[in-house]
Each structure stands twice: as structure tokens, then as C-alpha cells.
Amino acid sequence: MTTTPSSDVQTTAAGSATFPLVLGLDTFGDLTHDKDDHPLSHAQTIRNVVEEGVLADQVGVDFFGIGEHHTDDFPMPAGDVVLGAIAARTTRIRLGSAVTVLSSDDPVRVFQRYSTLNAVSGGRAEVVLGRGSSIDSFPLFGYDLSDYEILFEEKAQLFAELLKGGPVTWQGTIRAPLRDQDVVPHTESGPFPAWIGVGGSPQSVVRAARHGYSLMLAIIGGSPARFAPFSQLFQQALEKFGRAPLPVGVHSPGHVAATDEQAREEFWPRYLEVIRNVSKTRGFAVPTKQSFLREIGPHGALYVGSPETVAQKIAANLATLGANRFDLKYAMGGLPHETLMTNIELYGTQVIPRVRELMA
Amino acid sequence: MSDSALPRIAVLGAGHVGPVIARVSVEAGYPVTISASGDPERIALITRILVPGAEPRWAADAVADADLVVLAIPLHKFATFDPALVAGKLVVDTMNYWPPTDGVQAMFEDRRYGSSEIVQRRLAQSTIVKSFNHTGYHELEEERRPVGAPDRRALGVAGDDAAAVDLVAEVVERIGYDAVRLSGLSQGRLFEPGGPVFGASLRRDDFERAVSVEAA
Ligand SMILES: NC(=O)c1ccc[n+]([C@@H]2O[C@H](COP(=O)([O-])OP(=O)(O)OC[C@H]3O[C@@H](n4cnc5c(N)ncnc54)[C@H](OP(=O)(O)O)[C@@H]3O)[C@@H](O)[C@H]2O)c1
């Protein structure tokens, strides 16, 4: 599977494109705890993520993604290094970011790192680019949040140029120009898959289409169905820009355990704690048990439950959203590594086959 | 679908928030336009798919014809927003100042004033009313309820000009929320991030209690 997504397109009788179903896992390197609920070191958390990626490969997960974060509770600023370690121990699973905060990175470096990962992994690299909803990287690298829009727009444009391969000529306001610049390493078989992660801004959907990125919808709260018009907007925008159809994916948080009750009880206290912390830096309200139950129900954004519950919800939402890919963001700060390993195993051995069956 | 007797609403901003406010306003029967910072052609597709019934227009044209302007642009863009564009207009300020996500904005660092008071001082020729800022953009659509529904949620409306507050409260009510009016734009600080109602889904009595406890 070293093809780009667009080369896998099949056209249905209705004339709309279909892409193969992809079921993946994402993590932000959430700080894990030991069995006595003491936080592990950053280093141990990172080594655990390597083990989690290797297990994901063994149990049949299609994709493993690592999201960039720079905080004590998400010590994961260099996920591509971790992906390289996973690549060395696996042969099948695709590996990528979830997301790379492109706004505060250099597109040339991002291209180089992921095309190196692509080399190391034998063509299994992908990248999901984001504007960065967790903006801790801006002050860290000396970027001004007031430049949020222009940074992402120009860098997304430059990255699209780099992906084409061949010498790049580019000029903008946010970095030095490039003139006929050869950027290495070259990819072996065309561009690797590249996505833009979108939280809720229709202008970002149109941007993804304009530059020819696939669309990853990050749905972390509220009704997933409200994103359905976004896939429609994406496909129509691609058409308007004269591009072929591209895949649409969904990234949402969740947790799988043997039973619904066990999944809820493991997840809820951790979720409450994590969101309470995030609320402090974002100013919004802390979830209540009632709002949580709504989010894990059929009309909410969280996938928490037994394999059957989670599979049913994934299949239903992929159909509603016209999407062909689902990445479950597993791990919630404080959950022990062992619990995460069980989650991954259940996802690979039970949820994925069941979703395939439901969507066949 | 729109009712020509109702005030005309110009939404400025086609990002996360603008299209949602435009859509619920269209569904409440208002004539609605939507504008970004440039050519309406750039948001034509977004409008057609996400806000059917609204008209994409250049901001200046839309504002000139509007009875009510909804300002839904990022706060860090406000410093370069031209006050003359909305002179003489009723402007609903939906913006929040939250330095961890907006970056430090010198203009809004004067802690004697709420962010909407600072907006009012800069848009001196306009009448500012603060509302909608304290609810998540995705909730604004999902949590609408008809009048009298037991779980109908409240939204706050604060301003110095009573007639302007009434007009905005009427819009809030028609969209599907109980409007809780606070007299004085300075009271709008209660709706800000970290305040008692920010991000909270409250019915009218709980909302009134939350703001009055804090104001006391
Ligand atoms: N996140 C929430 O749930 C929430 C809830 C309530 C209120 N708010 C507040 O709502 C405001 C908007 O946030 P957002 O997330 O929607 O921002 P956003 O996604 O970044 O979108 C901003 C929009 O404003 C437009 N714009 C910028 N300058 C403009 C100008 N001078 N005239 C007309 N349009 C202009 C942009 O158009 P161009 O691309 O053409 O420049 C873009 O469409 C913020 O102040 C935020 O604090 C957020």
C-alpha cells in the first residue's frame, strides 16, 4: 500500500468516487500513569507509545497517528521520531501525524522529516497538517498568534509545492524564498498522502480543496452530523478548483473496553480531569456527567464503550458524513498503559472487523 | 423564507462563528448577508452550502443596508478593523479576548474595561451590544428550543442603549433562546471567558442567578 489515496479511487455507478475504508488510531502522547495512578516520566510515556504503535500494527489497525503537543501532560513535540521507531518494528501499518502544527514549523523541514519517515517505513508515511488549535507552539518558537491565518495559508501552499517533488520555486512573506530548490530526500513513488485537519471553519475546508489536500474533520464535541455539509463543501470546492475527488476522514476521541460500563468508568474521570485543565487555558465550562453522557450517546462526538457500541457509532457516522476514514483518538491523560493496550487490541481485533462488516 | 418586516442582519466573519450565526438567523426568518474581509465570490460556495438563503456580499455594501451588524471576526483582527465601516450602526459584538489563544492584544489589556467596552470606545460612532460570545459556536445551533420548552437555554444581552438591547434580545428570542438583558455594556464582563456563564448551558433562572450573584 504505497499508493497515494487518489490512485485508489473507484467510481461508483452514481458517479461519485469511493475510497477504501481506513480505520486508524491517534494519540497525543497523553501522559500515562502507572497502576498506582502515579504519573510516568515523559520518557516512559514516549516508549509506551512505541509499544502501542507496534501492537496496533499486530492487531490489524490501518494507521497510527501522533499529534504534536508541547506541554507537561502531552509531552509529544517530536512525534515523527517516535513514528520512525515504530516504523523500524512494523511492516504494514501506515504512520503519520495527527496533527503537525504547520503554522509554527518550517514546511521544508516538515517535508524532509516525513519524506525521511516515508523512506524508513518503505512508503508508509502520511501527514495531517493543522493550524494548531493547541497553540502552545507559538510562544515556544517565537511566533505571533496574530499571524495565525497568514502563517498557515502560506505554509500550506508551500508544502503543497514541496509534495509535488522536483525543484521548488516559492515566494511569500513568512519565510525566505526558494528558487529552483531541490529538497531531499526525494520520494520513491510520488507524493505521500497529505491531509488538512479542520475543526469547524468552512474556510479551512475550502483551503484544503484549493491546495489539493485530503480533508480530516476533527470532531471533538457536539453532533457529528453537523459536519456533513463540510464533506459536501469539500467535494464541490474540489470540483470548482478542477481537482479529482479526495478522501474525507474523521478524527474523534474515545475509549474501548470489554463493556460499555467499564469503558465509561475508566474514561470519565480522566476526561473530566483533562478537560478541566484545558478549560483553565481556554476559559470554557467543565463538562458535567450529563454532558458527557450526551457526548458518548448516538448524537455526541465521543466513542466510548464496548467494541460493538463503538463500531456501530463509527459505521453510522462515516455513512452520515460521507467519509471513508476514521481515526480514534485513544488515550486520555492518566489512563494506564495497560488499559490503552487493551483498548488497542479490542479496536484492532473487534471494532475494525465489525465496522468493515457493517459498511460492506 | 425571510420576512421583509424583520431587521436586516449583516454578519461579518465567515469562519467558525459567522456562518452558524447567519444560518440560525436565516432559519429564524431574518434577511441575512455574510461577508469576510474580501471578495464575496470567495465565500459564495460556503454560503450556498452552509447558509442557504443568505447572500454573500462585500462587507461595506452589506453593512450599508443592514439594521444590525454581527461582528464575528478574530479579536486580533480588530485593531485593523475600520470603525468608519460600521459608523451609525448597531453592532453585536460576539468577540472574546483570551490571551492564551489570541495572543496578548495591547488594546484589550486595560483591565478597567470589558472587551466590549473597548470595542465601543474604538467604534465610537456605533452602538455596541454584547451577546452570543459566551456560547460555543456548535452549541448555538444545537441548543435552540422553541418558546416555553422546559430546557430552553438563556443567552445574555448587554448594552448601554436600551432600544438596541431590546432589538438584539428580540433576535436572540426568535433564534431560540431566552434573552437575559443586562443594562450597561460594562455588565457584559460577566459573559467573558472565565466568567460565571461562559460556556455554560443555563436556563433563564439559573443564568439570572449566576450573573446576579457575581454582580452583587
Ligand atoms: N469558538 C467559539 O465557539 C466562539 C464562540 C463565540 C464567539 N467567538 C468569537 O468569535 C470571533 C470569531 O471567531 P472565529 O473562530 O469564527 O474566527 P475565524 O474562524 O478565524 O474566522 C474569522 C472570519 O473573520 C473574517 N474577517 C477578518 N477580518 C475581517 C474584516 N475586517 N471584515 C470582515 N470579515 C473579517 C475572516 O475573513 P477572511 O478570511 O476573508 O479574512 C474570517 O471569515 C472571535 O472573536 C471569537 O472569540 C468564538
From TrEMBL, chain A:
GO molecular function list = monooxygenase activity; oxidoreductase activity, acting on paired donors, with incorporation or reduction of molecular oxygen
Q: Name one Pfam family in it.
A: Bac_luciferase
The GO cellular component terms are:
cytosol
Task: State if Oxidoreductase is listed as a keyword.
Answer: yes
Q: Which UniProt keywords apply?
A: Monooxygenase, Oxidoreductase
- Answer whether the UniProt record assigns the keyword Transmembrane helix to this protein: no
**What are the Luciferase-like domain coordinates in residue numbering?**
39-324
- The protein depicted here goes by the name Oxidoreductase
Q: Which organism is it from?
A: Planotetraspora kaengkrachanensis
Q: What is the lineage of its organism?
A: Bacteria, Bacillati, Actinomycetota, Actinomycetes, Streptosporangiales
UniProtKB/TrEMBL annotation, chain B:
**Which residue ranges does the record assign to the Pyrroline-5-carboxylate reductase catalytic N-terminal domain?**
8-97
Q: Which InterPro entries match?
A: NAD(P)-bd_dom_sf, P5C_Rdtase_cat_N, STEAP_metalloreductase
| A GO term, aspect molecular function | oxidoreductase activity
User: Is the keyword Oxidoreductase in the record?
Assistant: yes
Q: What SUPFAM superfamilies does the annotation carry?
A: NAD(P)-binding Rossmann-fold domains (SSF51735)
- UniProt keyword annotation of Ligase present: no
Q: Supply the Pfam families for this chain.
A: F420_oxidored
Keyword annotations = Oxidoreductase
This protein's name: NADP oxidoreductase
- Annotated source species: Planotetraspora kaengkrachanensis
